[in-house]
Design a protein that fits this description.
Length: 228
């Protein structure tokens, strides 16, 4: 088990995100980074600067996903689906996520969202990722996971994970999330419910990566809805 769902829920309630330590060891991180060179595993490569997304690049895996990533994606979904359902109930969203990920993906695929979204992201010195949201269609699973594969103690400097939160009638709050090699951060895709005096309202969430000051940084992204 990656982590306990209630611990993740508590962390996100308090801070807007939750860090889960040591999801992968160093060997597993290096193995996953080497996948980037195998073109047959990927359906699409995006150069960020061509779209004003930032400076760097990423590749989306194609189906069938590598076994380790497929297993992890299903496990994260199982843990996070109860949290997603609580969020949707609080915000008056009718969608309820089924217990199994393949059932949720069947809903996505029926709506035309058939392209897999797990990805590897790669940055060199000077690279960065602007604050953004990973929204790919009508069905948006409200939580996602990023796992740092590079070692911030030896592979790169800078490149901190960033998250911002905009609540109604408030200025934006931004936070740096410190991660070590193999650590995962669970965070909202585009929104989360926040308690106010009149009940729950929707906070607008974005995430990104600060500028890489030296070296190279790679991340595995686990997005749980598929893309149109």
């Amino acid at each position: 088990m990656i982590a306990e769902s209630d611990l993740i829920s508590s962390g996100i309630e308090n801070a807007g995100y939750c860090v889960v330590r040591d999801v992968f060891d160093e060997r597993q991180c290096r193995e996953l980074m080497r996948l980037y060179a195998d073109d047959a595993l990927f359906r699409k490569r995006v150069v960020m600067e061509a779209h004003a997304y930032g400076l760097g690049e990423y590749q989306y895996f194609r189906y069938p996903l590598p076994a380790r990533i497929q297993t992890m994606r299903s496990e994260w979904y199982r843990l996070l689906a109860p949290i997603a359902n609580v969020w949707n109930e609080r915000l008056g969203i009718a969608m309820r996520c089924p217990a199994a990920h393949d059932e949720y993906l069947a809903v996505c695929h029926e709506a035309g969202q058939e392209r897999p979204t797990p990805l590897l992201l790669k940055y060199r010195e000077g690279g960065f990722n602007r604050l953004h949201q990973d929204v790919y269609g009508e069905y948006i699973f409200p939580l996602q996971v990023a796992i740092l594969l590079s070692d911030p103690e030896s592979d790169f400097t800078g490149g901190e994970f960033l998250i911002s939160e905009q609540r109604p009638r408030m200025q934006t709050r931004a936070e740096v999330v410190p991660l070590g090699q193999g650590d995962a951060v669970v965070f909202p895709v585009s929104y989360r419910p926040v308690q106010g005096k009149r009940g729950f309202s929707c906070a607008n969430m974005r995430h990104g990566v600060s500028r890489i000051r030296s070296g190279n940084r790679m991340t595995l992204g686990i997005i749980l809805h598929d893309a149109a």
